[in-house]
Design brief:
mainly alpha, 12 helices, 75% helix, hydrolase, ACP_PD, lipid biosynthesis
Length: 198
């Protein structure tokens, strides 16, 4: 999953949000133990979310739309697509509540930035400046994210316009994948937290 989903699946627990967002920038158990137990839990939850998502049959269906144009990177673009549909899911967010939630996440991360990886903070600066979490909801915003990923990936040679065209062509099918998958993921994370917190 991408940043909005990881933040949302932290259920407004500040340290979980922090760990969930920095997890890709924390490598190895030696670095993990330098964080508080709550942030460590967020990192573990992030990894569990990614593993569950990658292995889920609905995600495999969604990735097939991107495979011809993106190959190995189809999962990256599927993650972004899930964030778009989460941001536009009126059962979870209105435009105002998404804006409020985005600001809440930025504030929580900013309050802990002294203890966070420099590589994460470099990325986070752009996230906050361009309000990625909120702008995932628009076609322009998600298209900008597609272009950003395309610029940063070393081996992806596909024109991002083609990837955006695939997204728009299969919009309804991808949205159906999200609606089928995301409630299952949410239940999985809720149960995982219940087990961990016993």
């Amino acid at each position: 999953m991408n940043y909005l989903a990881h933040a949302y699946l932290s259920f407004r627990q500040p340290e979980l949000i922090t760990g969930n967002l920095i997890a890709d920038f924390v490598k190895g158990s030696a670095k993990l133990i330098t964080y508080s137990p709550g942030i460590q839990q967020g990192i573990r939850i992030h990894r569990a979310i990614d593993s569950y998502t990658d292995q889920h049959p609905v995600t495999s269906m969604a990735k097939r739309f991107f495979l011809p144009s993106c190959g190995h990177y189809s999962g990256v673009f599927t993650d972004l697509v899930y964030d778009h549909f989460l941001a536009t899911d009126t059962g979870r967010f209105s435009p105002d509540s998404l804006l409020s939630f985005s600001r809440y996440v930025y504030d929580e991360i900013t309050s802990r930035e002294a203890q966070l990886p420099a590589t994460f903070l470099q990325m986070f600066q752009y996230m906050q400046q361009h309000n990625w979490l909120y702008n995932y909801r628009t076609i322009d915003g998600i298209s900008s994210s597609f272009r950003g990923i395309s610029r940063r990936t070393k081996y992806l040679q596909t024109d991002p316009a083609l990837i955006i065209a695939v997204f728009l062509e299969h919009y309804q099918e991808l949205q159906s994948c999200y609606h089928s998958f995301f409630p299952q993921l949410e239940t999985y994370v809720e149960n995982l937290l219940l087990t961990e917190n016993r």
